[in-house]
From TrEMBL, chains A, B:
Keyword Transcription included in the entry's annotation: yes
Top-level taxon of origin: Bacteria
Annotation: DNA-binding region: 124-220
Domain OmpR/PhoB-type span(s) in chain numbering: 124-220
Protein name: Response regulator
Response regulatory domain span: 2-116
Source species: Vogesella oryzagri
Keywords: DNA-binding, Phosphoprotein, Transcription, Transcription regulation
DNA sequence: GGCAAGCTTTCATTTCCCTTTCATTGCCTG
DNA sequence: CAGGCAATGAAAGGGAAATGAAAGCTTGCC
């Protein structure tokens, strides 16, 4: 994972950079707020470790500007200020975690792991295939940002196909995933849903292929 | 929003429940740690207010178990212990904010608002959607500056929809956020509130869409 | 060609949602 | 304390969308 460490004290910066590199991360270091702000506006990072006391632009300002640009990257704030007010301030600005100095290296590493894990977990929230994307949390599909109106059954079928994109799914398997155990549904009904889905997905950059005798497969259109 | 208040002192519990209910929240009360732990494992809350000194299981343990289950609900910790150690302990366990006893009611309410706002990923004080705006501090809705007359239930429903604007909210989820545990309300009643809200929001530039099978969604009118 | 698998349309049924009505409750006011 | 009023939510009827069976048609494979 690629991290940005924003820390003006060269000793601490070097110490943390070494430790985090040893954990297998790629660590960039910014020594002041302006430099951090610039890096963050065009480089993609998986995590930011942000000191508050910085030359030229303080950490709160860096954070505020970051969030104002709509960047959702997880931010771990480091600070010597232990007051609740400072913590509340940081969290209100969109920090994801907070660590007061001095801290144990082990604790920092644990929090970095936790934040990365959490943000990775969020990403399995957005399934994509070609121009089609799916948000499991809200059960919504969209094509190039345009929401796609699907019926519940259609959503269920498409979801299964999406999770197994590039792999064939038999009609029987589909039927089992789509209805509850206590219900009875002929696998032939899948043909109807696939038919309706194909119409609605006509210009979505995604197609449902038929693999005769095997089932259906979601794939990007060519 | 539906809150859980965990407080063993009946006087304080009643006082806070009344105050928070007056702010338009649905407030359940748990009088000991075990009860709180059980409620938190199967009821959805938007916020937890957690006293530390509790019978049967202390607040730290409740918090630890809550986070271990992966529950991310915001937690505001109340405590008579003013030491930094206790505070750090609570925050390390995953508390989101910290308030020492005694406290002003106004401060508690402010922190509750801040946590609710932050947990929804919003940064502005006033929630907005199209021409409709909502002031959390005073619980007032207005359209183009004109105040909107809503009943308490209508406000509660609209608030939930507003916090999740652009995302569908099922009737069941709505019902759970709008009423307390000891109340009984059929999800079908949501249809009535939505119906009444739609009439009152007729020319507000905001519509409540029906996503069949999914729920309702607040969106700007087109 | 023949057959099986899949495609498409039709349509009755079911499910979900909208809307109105009305009994009940709690609060305000005289 | 009575009467009025607003809020609430259950019930029921109507209607639109979703569903899935049936049946005829098309396509691919031998």
């Amino acid at each position: 994972m690629r991290l940005l460490l924003v820390e003006d004290n060269p000793d601490i910066a070097l110490w943390l950079q070494k430790a985090l590199s040893a954990s297998g991360h790629a660590v960039d270091v910014a020594a002041d707020g302006v430099q951090a702000d610039q890096l963050l506006s065009y480089e993609p990072y998986a995590l930011v470790i942000l000191d508050i006391g910085l030359p030229r632009m303080d950490g709160f300002e860096v954070l505020k500007r970051l969030r104002r640009r709509g960047n959702k990257v997880p931010v771990l704030v480091l600070t010597a200020q232990t007051g609740v007010d400072a913590r509340v301030h940081g969290l209100d600005l969109g920090a994801d975690d907070y660590l007061g100095k001095p801290f144990e290296l082990a604790e920092l590493e644990a929090r970095v792991r936790a934040l990365l894990r959490r943000s990775q977990g969020k990403e399995d929230g957005a399934l994509q295939c070609g121009e089609l994307s799916f948000e499991p949390a809200s059960k919504r599909y969209s094509v190039r940002g345009q929401p796609l109106a699907l019926t519940p059954r259609e959503m269920a079928v498409l979801e299964v196909l999406l999770y197994r994109q590039g792999k064939p799914v038999s009609k029987e398997a589909l039927a089992e995933q789509v209805v509850r155990l206590d219900q009875d549904l002929s696998p032939d009904a899948m043909e109807i849903y696939v038919h309706r889905l194909r119409k609605k997905l006509a210009d979505s950059g995604v197609v449902i292929l038929t693999l005769r005798g095997l089932g259906y497969m979601l794939d990007v259109a060519k």
